[in-house]
Amino acid sequence: MVTDQLNSIIKNSKNILLVSHINPDGDTLGSMCGMYSLILDNYKKKCEMVAVSKIPSIYNFIPYINEVKFIDELDLSREYDLVINLDVAAIDRCADAKILFEKSKYTINIDHHETNIGYANINVIEPKAAATAEVLVGLAIDLGWNISNETALCLYTAIVTDTGCFKFSNTTPKTMEYAGKMLNYGVDASEVYKNCYESNSKNMVLFQSYCVNKAEFLHNDEIAYTIVYKKDLEKYNSNGEDFTDGLTEKLRAIVTTEIAFVVKELSPNVSKVSMRSKSVDIAQICSALGGGGHKLAAGVLIKASPKKTVELILEEIEKRIYD
Ligand code: AMP
Ligand code: MN
Ligand code: MN
After folding, report:
1. Of 76, 189, 217, 252, which sits most exposed with the smallest number of CB within 10 A?
2. What's the domain count of the chain?
């Protein structure tokens, strides 16, 4: 049984590193801190946690988030007994933490992305789970782990953010059941909502409105996209916060939209694409270009200018959807 293996590997490992994905979201952070809390409470040992890019400040309320180290603070030549990746769809999604992953004695990959190929020694991948945290709640129940209030807050937050507050189509009865269990451990649902959705800066909201305002529409408004240029971002935002979180959903919210995407210029020749759909499978579109994700929420990093990236994406959409 995979749970028995998991239990004995965690029990026998002294140095454990927990890894989150690049551009961290609520699921990867909540799952990582939740796992930290579970291991602390149930095995009485402290793990290390790593982030490979800036943690959005709205997540500062997640328990143990202050324990997370930035990749620069870790010794990349170190050999861990165990590295656990959480919500990391592909090994490249954890940037330089990949070096530590590959050197580790054992590796575990806990995830819910359909495109995850199972790149670790032990893989617990449940594509039907709404969030990696949902997989974790299942594991905690199977292993009879004690769930503290801190653990519950971490995991509940992860489920809330990956389901857009239980409104995306990935939400199942099991998602609700597990989230409900977390409320039983004393989580305040309305506090989590406030922290995740009503804690944005004024500039972020203004910036997103600006981006929506200059969106382009194609195919009778079925396709909606906008480009986020670095210089525009810098005008609104001086502290390096990610101002694009939730922007793609704003374009999908338009009644005619089938596919929405945001192209963010990271550097003149590197663009990050965030894509959402109402029903069309866009994981295949992003996978074809080297990315991945879920049927209705996917992404890809493309080595090209924003304009060229838009061309590549539209080409793929034309070929796969409108041909
Ligand atoms: P985002 O739009 O960044 O929130 O990403 C949407 C979904 O696509 C998430 O579940 C990500 O894990 C996945 N995703 C985003 N970028 C990539 C990528 N470069 N490679 C694989 N999956 C990605
Ligand atoms: Mn994620
Ligand atoms: Mn996730």
Report:
1. 76
2. 2
